[in-house]
């Protein structure tokens, strides 16, 4: 008969409806995490695969590197035909439309735009300076203000290129010793090749991409848009080959 529970009535826990369970049991939480992980794998499959490949190829901290022994490459120092050939071999061949390493994009009937990779620009500059040294009389530089400006630009560009990589490999000399092990005064003019291993970027992939793009029909190419603050050819091409073609 009593519609209200009396204050002194002890609450009957035994017969009360099902006791409250916590909403997040360990099992439910695990199921949610598992489902999210499965969806993430499905949605980001491509990116995860690329990431795993990068980890596998040791590319996570940047490009692949290898160690290269610097030595006195006489061919690159040669003033004649041997040197011409060696320098030519460093870059993709020039095309009808542009110099070595430059990719020409035909925007419309009358308009083309070039782009290139920084290192081929630096090599072009060194090659131009080499030509000036070995193949042009000194008077040309004095007389031709355009050439002087180009040489000035090239010096500035190559200096920045060298500072950018700031290769801090320690270069030691190996002074000759006599039979008692005493150092002998070093002979020569200090040009002795310092044979040290340097850690260098592996250019094989870049060269492959440059070869492909410089040989492509300018009409089939697209001018690559700015994507990041720093856009590197290898990385960009790997992630979006379609960004380079119409
Ligand atoms: C070609 O493109 C350039 C640059 O966008 C533009 O100035 C020019 O008018 C275009 N020419 C034709 C024929 O569409």
What would you say this structure looks like, in words?
Belongs to the ustYa family. Helix content is 43%, strand content 7%. It is built from 9 helices and 4 strands. It has helices at 26-43, 45-56, 74-77, 81-88, 118-135, 138-143, 145-165, 204-215, 233-239, and strands at 65-69, 103-106, 112-115, 197-201. The strands form 2 sheets. The protein has a two-stranded antiparallel sheet with strand order 1-4. The model has no long low-confidence stretch (mean pLDDT 84). 2-acetamido-2-deoxy-beta-D-glucopyranose binds at residues 107-111.
Helix content: 40-55%
Rg over CA atoms, rounded to whole Å, is 33 Å
Order of helices and strands: HHEHHEEHHHEHH
Beta content? 5-15%
Look at the helices and sheets and give the structural class: mainly alpha
What is the approximate shape?
flat
Number of helices: 9
Number of strands: 4
Q: Main sheet?
A: 2 strands, antiparallel
Low-confidence stretches: none
Output mean pLDDT. Answer: 84
Q: Largest beta sheet: what is the strand line-up? A: 1-4
List the ions, cofactors and other small molecules found in this model: 2-acetamido-2-deoxy-beta-D-glucopyranose
Distance linking N and C termini: 86 Å
């Amino acid at each position: 008969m009593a519609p209200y529970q009396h204050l002194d009535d002890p609450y009957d826990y035994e017969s009360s409806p099902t006791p409250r369970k916590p909403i997040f049991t360990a099992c439910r939480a695990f199921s949610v995490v598992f489902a999210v992980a499965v969806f993430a794998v499905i949605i980001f499959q491509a990116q995860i695969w690329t990431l795993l490949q990068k980890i596998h190829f040791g590319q996570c901290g940047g490009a692949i590197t290898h160690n290269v022994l610097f030595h006195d490459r006489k061919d690159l120092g040669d003033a004649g035909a041997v040197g011409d050939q060696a320098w030519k071999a460093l870059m993709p061949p020039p095309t009808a439309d542009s110099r070595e390493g430059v990719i020409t994009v035909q925007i419309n009937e009358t308009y083309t735009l070039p782009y290139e990779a920084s290192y081929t620009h630096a090599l072009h500059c060194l090659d131009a300076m080499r030509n000036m040294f070995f193949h042009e009389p000194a008077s040309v530089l004095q007389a031709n203000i355009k050439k002087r400006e180009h040489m000035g630009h090239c010096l500035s560009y190559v200096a920045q290129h060298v500072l950018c990589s700031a290769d801090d490999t320690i270069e030691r000399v190996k002074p000759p010793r006599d039979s008692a092990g005493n150092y002998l005064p070093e002979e020569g003019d200090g040009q002795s090749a310092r044979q040290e291993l340097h850690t260098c970027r592996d250019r094989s992939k870049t060269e492959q991409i440059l070869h492909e793009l410089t040989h492509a029909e300018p009409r089939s190419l697209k001018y690559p848009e700015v994507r990041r603050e720093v856009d590197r050819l290898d990385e960009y091409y790997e992630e979006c080959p379609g960004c380079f073609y119409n």
